[in-house]
Amino acid sequence: MPLLTQTLHPPPKRITSARRAPRWTLVAAALAAATAVLGWLVWRLPRPLPVLGTVPAFSLTERSGRPLAAADLAGHVWVADFIFTRCPDVCPALTTRMADLQQQLGGTADPVRLVSFSVDPAHDTPDVLTDYAGRAGAREAWLFVTGARDAVARLLRDGFHVAYADDGPPSAPITHSDRFVLVDRELRIRGYYHGSDRDDLARLARDAAVLCDARAR
To answer: Three-state secondary structure along the chain?
Structure first.
């Protein structure tokens, strides 16, 4: 009889931790997925751009013949590059890239200004720059600037902190930076970009849009 009782009523089985392991595995997997999604969202958020310097006061001449000072650009997001109209190779490519930026960033009520500084002011008079700008398809928000040689050299070296020299051999008399420089509404430099690198210029377009949306964060 005791044997029959044991057969009809077997002792309860103990539930071990191994039976509960799958539940904790699912929880851990869900937490890992949530962490991954959160990390992706944080990565996608625009990151504050560094402040790399401030453009100093300057007074130069735009292709229209009108004077252009740093104060005239305050209140606008703008991009600077450095070219000269007799340049046979790098400068035409930089100007083409600026034209691309004009298409990308020019369709707003307050478009990003583009400012091309001539590094050959002895040759690049306002009339020469006007002709060059016309061939590049420049609109009103794309400025072409010239001025006294010493003022231009000082602005590039001490203001934008980019390379410039005009004492080379006849075959290459002028050496200058191929960087594009992003400047915010407070005349603060917020980024340098390789003018020959399309990926870098795509980053420039995104950063300029961030500054426009954030009102010079």
So the answer is: CHHHHHHHCCCCCCCCHHHHHHHHHHHHHHHHHHHHHHHHHHHHCCCCCCCCEECCCCEEEECCCCEEEHHHHCCCCEEEEEECCCCCCHHHHHHHHHHHHHHHHCCCCCCCEEEEEECCCCCCCHHHHHHHHHHHCCCCCEEEEECCHHHHHHHHHHHHCCCEECCCCCCCCCEECCEEEEECCCCEEEEEEECCCHHHHHHHHHHHHHHHHHCCC
- CB neighbourhood size of 179 (10 A): 20
* pTM for this predicted structure: 0.77
The residue among 210, 214, 205 whose CA lies nearest residue 101 is 205
User: Distance between CA 126 and CA 138 in Å, rounded?
Assistant: 14
Distance separating alpha carbons of residues 95 and 122, to the nearest angstrom = 20
Question: Is the distance from CB of 160 to CB of 189 less than 8 angstroms?
Answer: yes
Q: Are 49 and 208 in contact (CB under 8 A)?
A: no
Of the candidates 187, 162, 151, which has an alpha carbon nearest to the alpha carbon of residue 54?
187
Chain Cα centroid distance, residue 133: 23
Asked if 139 and 101 touch (Cβ cutoff 8 Å), the reply is no
pLDDT tens digits, 75-131: 999 999 999 999 988 999 999 999 999 999 977 778 899 999 999 999 999 999 999
